[in-house]
Q: What sequence folds into this?
């Protein structure tokens, strides 16, 4: 940057200085953020990265005045356009939320009111800040919905959230955030619930709007790939303390803290070109024998009846794949691609309309009643969310023991031995057996879910987005555990995911589904390096982390050509 540029550099939109935050629990206060300091210039993207419990969301909430009732800023400053807002009351924050600082929340489904139209919810922020009369607000709502790339914005304004896809809902939240062209947008995990291609479109949209309006962005994320692609600077948090901060490219190229190095090593999206090592018959051209395959799906079709329509909806249309014993086959695709319907058929939850499903030599489609129930011991399912898949009323011992009670009339002592053995297999200490799920972390809960699935000694494990709800380091631990279990127990995995970076790391073979049809299949390395469909190429191109750092963007360039909120506006609003 030249001396002239330095002389006219605008002041930061946000300055956080020596910020400490505590939460009160009855008579005890616990500090969760310890002396955090950073700044964001106009037009700049700064990413707060770290695992759950790192303090990143608490820090972001304090900036927009949304700390929980038992949380308080213990000391430090939060200067927004030069004004310290750290001690402001909720009423004072109401005057600047939306006008000067806005929030894009994480979950588009729970963040919108289901009984109000999209137009009403976008218009609310305009009404609060007296944007204009009803007609002016209605026009502005349509303009905003068009601005964020929603087709037929007049129609969308009249629709309710349940009529929109996840990506469309997130665009509505962005429309609300940019309605009054704030100086700062806080994007709190804005794409973590979205498919990879939708994620890229949403992040592109935020970037375009940032460039257009000169808005500063605080990106809160645990996804190092997203941060690497989109942020000018990184602030790495662990346990409420900054471990490292600096220019994105510099931090990625030469991380100074051990914690940052671990985060980078554990991020699948940053391991470019790293495929699972080829193993045995799964990777060579040995002649195929029927007995080599643990799973054979042939011509799978599944139709669903639709009320008011004679023609059913075809969710799965002629899908076929084979999985060799002891290997991992991934099924990937966006929401609505047919992944979930396929695996529910494979585990015997539903009967397909047509086709054949053979698991360990048995045609699942021919089984009924008790024979089908007993066969489910051979194939077990691990669900996506460890926070909702475990019964909160049961102890961990009861959760793992339950399948044995359902399937095997074993003596109590033998059941206890099996529970302890499988708990040790998944790397948990015996002390957790008397606890309930709420006392465990997300990674520990997912280990319990895996133990519950394995206690019946199945030969096939179906993993339905089994690591997507976990932080990157915990995800890496679970993936390593799955690798060890597969090697030691000879398990065959069917791995369902929308995260192609994880698939590249864990799977031997892959099927790519789009609209219920298989558009690509084969060895993971072949499909990734030589995709056979445009859709597969789009999925692969959308994997974050390919840039390794965002192309250098000088915030002064944006500031020179776009007007952000002047510091005086904040003081006037106060």
A:
């Amino acid at each position: 940057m030249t001396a002239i540029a330095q002389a006219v550099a605008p002041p930061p939109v946000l300055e956080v200085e020596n910020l400490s935050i505590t939460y009160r629990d009855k008579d005890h206060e616990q500090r969760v953020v310890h002396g955090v300091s950073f700044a964001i210039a106009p037009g700049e993207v700064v990413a707060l990265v770290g695992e759950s419990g790192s303090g990143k969301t608490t820090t972001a909430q304090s900036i927009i005045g949304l700390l929980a009732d038992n949380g308080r800023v213990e000391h430090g400053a939060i200067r927004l356009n030069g004004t310290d807002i750290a001690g402001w009351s909720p009423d004072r924050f109401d005057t600047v939320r939306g006008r000067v600082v806005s929030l894009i929340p994480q979950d588009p489904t729970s963040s919108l009111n289901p009984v109000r139209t999209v137009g009403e919810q976008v218009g609310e922020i305009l009404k609060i800040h007296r944007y204009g009369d009803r007609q002016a607000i209605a026009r502005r709502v349509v303009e905003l919905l068009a601005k964020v790339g929603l087709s037929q914005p007049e129609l969308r304004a009249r629709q309710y959230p349940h009529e929109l896809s996840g990506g469309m809902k997130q665009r509505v939240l962005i429309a609300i955030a940019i309605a009054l062209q704030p100086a700062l947008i806080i994007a709190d995990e804005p794409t973590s619930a979205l498919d990879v291609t939708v994620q890229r479109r949403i992040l592109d949209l935020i970037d375009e709007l940032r460039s257009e309006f000169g808005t500063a962005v605080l990106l809160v994320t645990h996804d190092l790939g997203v941060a690497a692609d989109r942020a000018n600077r990184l602030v790495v948090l662990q346990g409420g303390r900054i471990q490292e901060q600096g220019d994105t490219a510099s931090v990625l190229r030469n991380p100074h803290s051990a914690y940052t190095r671990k985060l980078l090593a554990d991020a699948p999206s940053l391991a470019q070109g790293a495929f699972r090592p080829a193993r045995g018959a799964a990777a060579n051209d040995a002649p195929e024998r029927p007995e080599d395959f643990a799973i054979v799906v042939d011509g799978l079709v599944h139709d669903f009846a639709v009320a008011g329509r004679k023609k059913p909806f075809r969710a799965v249309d002629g899908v076929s794949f084979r999985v060799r014993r002891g290997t991992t086959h991934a099924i990937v695709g966006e929401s609505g691609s047919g992944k979930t319907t396929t695996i529910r058929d494979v585990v015997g939850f539903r009967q397909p309309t047509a086709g054949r499903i053979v698991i360990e030599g048995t045609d699942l489609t021919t089984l009924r009643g008790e024979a089908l129930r007993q066969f489910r011991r051979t194939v077990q399912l691990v669900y996506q969310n460890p926070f909702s898949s475990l019964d909160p009323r049961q102890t961990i011992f009861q959760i793992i023991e339950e399948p044995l009670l359902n399937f095997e009339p074993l003596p109590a002592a033998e059941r206890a031995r099996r529970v302890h053995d499988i708990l040790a297999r998944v790397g948990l200490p015996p002390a957790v057996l008397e606890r309930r799920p709420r006392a465990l972390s997300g990674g520990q809960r997912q280990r319990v879910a895996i133990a519950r699935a394995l206690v019946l000694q199945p030969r096939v494990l179906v993993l339905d987005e089994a690591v997507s709800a976990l932080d990157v380091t915990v995800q890496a631990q679970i993936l390593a555990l799955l690798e060890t279990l597969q090697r030691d127990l000879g398990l065959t995995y069917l791995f369902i995911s929308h995260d192609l970076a994880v698939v590249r790391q864990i799977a031997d073979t892959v099927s790519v589904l789009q609209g219920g049809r298989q558009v690509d299949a084969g060895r993971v390395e072949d499909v990734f390096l030589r995709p056979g469909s445009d859709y597969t190429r789009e999925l692969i191109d959308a994997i974050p982390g390919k840039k390794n750092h965002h192309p250098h963007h000088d915030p002064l360039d944006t500031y020179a050509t776009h007007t952000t909120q002047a510091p005086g506006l904040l003081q006037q609003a106060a």
About this structure: Confidence is low (pLDDT under 50) at residues 549-569.
